Structure to design on (672 residues):
């Protein structure tokens, strides 16, 4: 499988790391040859039709900061779109930074790949939250596959779980803790009885919350995932603006203590059902699968036959997210 | 798909119920025609090459107690083995009662189906815990499929999850609460501070624990599931005798209270790793995915790339278990 990867940040580097450690095993187990023929970042690209070395890609990026410095095969200043025109490939991995305003450049990349009759795997929430149906329709009409497990909850593989493992069930609704940063903050507030502001600051110092934490704490990241789950699992046709969103910045230690006294915890929960599309702080029972601490993500699928089924996993992490991309690649390969 | 189902107890009747409610949807969604051509119980069989009516099967069983009383197509005193010789079928659903001594009659049924080049779906822990490798090898050498999601944790679909959804990951170990009855008893002991004996008695009155609770409370049921997970997910070749088993009958309210004081709960946990194959009461952290109450089952897969991934679901229930059988049938159908 000849692969073009656009984007070489945390997720892209995770993919390179995973390719480096697992390539031989995947070849032996599935007969799938993971061959990276081009990788881009903002500096340009590394392109080699015979295959790039993932370790050398990582070394180049770490030492020189640019994939276009890749020995012999570096191409400065070339764009992702140009690379897609110039190389022979089977599958696009789109891992450029998420842009929640217009989904670009990922949207253009993905649609171009479909028109070139190529399969696409992405972790990019932007285009999925803004124009899901357009992308899904284009994939279908071009007869190619579109997989995006990594876009929701990193290593909590909820999409393929719903589609494959629960194939016999109808999914009536989904409830989830879809953002690790807010779960971390709320867990620590509940344990320590400390204020939101103080825990947020410490989370920023630890690198768990970003310097500008708005996307996480105001529920925007979780709302994007709600949109992806609604469209992908529940067959809806909704976008980011359809989600009612309330974040966690108004939660006080007093409200958490009050909930705790009655056996409850406060979590930022996303809900997808016929009647509701929202992200908001909610009470969850101690002893329920939602009472998980730390940066974990969790999603419960309410089904017609199997009742509630829940998946818990790490919501983020470079290699963890890359593992979801690898599973998508294997799934595409197995279906050929 | 022409289906023979051997056994018409709780699980078999759940399958009939699921076929009745979902047959049209499954046909429309996957093109799969679920056609029950024969169903047996201890009384004999109902056989109709054009297809039995699941509702009439259930009605006959409930009113007359015997599927062999099925109007026009009832066949008294015929055995499962004879039925398999006499009818034209594609797939066997084996749901006779679990027998942990020699795995019969399920073992004979399953091996016969393989030799007839038929796929098999089962919920039957007996043969899987006693002679897994023999069965898996026979399926492979006959070029047929062997699926048994329903044998571990009913509606907690851990096997297909590990094989399909986490295709890119190596699974290094599995930890699980694999028995709902013991989880229910321990959860109530922790909440109420009451003795094991009292809660067990109440659980029996509620129908959650059986009159003879040995299989559950002594860890035998969980140990069977440990064997199935070890062989299926970890590629081991072990059987029931290889598992170290300790149940929950020795747990006191005092030990639970002591654990609670330090932020822990006591759960009956099955562990599968290279070094350990055991079922025993263990301390688990509050706030971890293992701190689930009631009859829920949970299993955590420790992976090389995605770190810990956990699935939580109902461990039992007639329709819930049947949903796992249905997912297996769809998976077989999709791979054709």
């Amino acid at each position: 499988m000849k692969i073009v990867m656009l984007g070489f940040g945390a997720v892209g580097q995770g993919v390179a790391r995973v390719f480096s450690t697992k390539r031989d095993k995947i070849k032996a187990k599935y007969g799938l040859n993971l061959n990276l023929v081009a990788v881009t970042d903002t500096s340009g690209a590394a392109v080699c039709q015979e295959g790039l070395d993932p370790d050398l890609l990582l070394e180049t990026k770490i030492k020189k900061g640019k994939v276009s410095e890749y020995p012999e095969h570096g191409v400065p200043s070339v764009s992702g779109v140009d690379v897609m025109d110039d190389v022979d490939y089977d599958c696009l991995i789109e891992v450029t930074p998420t842009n929640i305003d217009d989904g670009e450049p990922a949207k253009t990349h993905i649609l171009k790949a479909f028109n070139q009759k190529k399969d696409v795997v992405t972790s990019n929430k932007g285009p999925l939250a803004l124009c899901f149906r357009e992308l899904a329709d284009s994939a279908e009409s071009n007869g190619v596959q579109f997989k995006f497990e990594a876009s929701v909850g990193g290593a909590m593989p909820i999409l393929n779980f719903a589609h494959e493992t629960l194939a016999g069930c109808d999914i009536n609704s989904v409830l989830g803790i879809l953002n690790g940063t807010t779960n971390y903050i709320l867990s620590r507030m509940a344990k320590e009885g400390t204020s939101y502001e103080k825990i947020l600051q410490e989370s920023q110092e630890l690198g768990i919350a970003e310097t500008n934490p708005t996307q996480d704490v105001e529920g925007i990241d979780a709302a994007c995932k709600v949109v992806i789950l609604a469209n992908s699992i529940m067959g809806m046709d909704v976008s980011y603006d359809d989600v009612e969103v309330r974040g966690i910045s108004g939660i006080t230690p007093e409200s958490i203590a009050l909930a705790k006294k009655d056996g409850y915890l406060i979590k930022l929960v996303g809900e997808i059902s016929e009647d509701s599309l929202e992200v908001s702080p909610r009470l969850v029972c101690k002893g329920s699968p939602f009472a998980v601490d730390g940066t974990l993500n969790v999603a419960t699928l309410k089904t017609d036959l199997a009742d509630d089924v829940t998946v818990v996993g790490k919501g983020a992490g470079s290699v963890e997210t890359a593992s979801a991309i690898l599973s998508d690649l294997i799934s595409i390969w197995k279906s050929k």
